[in-house]
Amino acid sequence: MALPPLVVATAREGWRWQWRQLMQGLGPADAEGRYLRPASDRMDVVIPDQSELQLRCDAQRPRLVIGRSCPWAHRTWLMHRLRRLEGTLTLLMATADHRAGRWSLVPAWLDCDSLLALYRHCGTPPHHRATVPALIDPGREAGLTPQLLGDDSAALTKTLNQWPGGEGAMDLAPAALAPGIQRWMQLLQPAVNDGVYRCGFARTQKAYDEASAALFSALNAVEAALQHQGPWLCGVQPTIADVCLFPTLIRWELVYAPLFGCNAQPLWMFPALWRWRQAFYALPGVAETCAGEAWRADYFGALFPLNPGGIIPAGPDLCTLIGSSPALP
Questions:
Q1: CA dist., res. 129 & res. 114, Å (int)
Q2: pTM of the model
């Protein structure tokens, strides 16, 4: 039997009200429904003495806490690989606990089984959000209180370029390219990195349309620049600007287009950008930071307001996708 129109209309409005409450839990929005990313609690980053860092044993080394699906943590993971920081900075992988809505640490570290417990162990104020990436220093001596050195991804990315690296470590922020890097970051951070979330977490059609227009305008600017001055954003070598763009672009077909509605133009319509993504994926250590199936499971499994059925859709194999050429019409 068909449901009466009044029942359908009432159920629709009830669901919309609940959806708005759930979306508010994902992230705040302004009065017109535009998603607003919360500011990081620790914008500054403390760097231990570099010569002293190289004398520490593994148990004493700072930990870079990351999550496999977080694009903000991914950029610091890429810095760790490209700068060859294994000898002075240890990675600690946090696991997304969808039911509890937190980052778990398995196995526990410093007797902490969650990132929240680790933050509190570091003496952070109760209002600080426990988020990845996070840079934690356990200290050289037993009994010392560990220290949160920083948890803002942009600041950490810059800091890791100054961190003592191994042989062959890339300089991803050479002084000569600083103006170009800064120009790209001022465009990409709000329009692309935040832009995909502004599309997915938009509360109104107007907010979505604005975010989508800004996103694809920025991608067209990247495409034009790569066609004329590539192969990288700032010319002949990869920089932090490339590092910060890659985590968003590598998740495109697997997550952002199907779940966040970032599909005004498919990525194959940007041939220079497609080649750029292939080239970056081929850099030493980059492929091992990419896990397409895990990304789909975490995004579609965790973001209930965007995917209430909990169904994880099929998607392209990441290696096959990256290795292919765009299927032009």
A1: 13
A2: 0.94
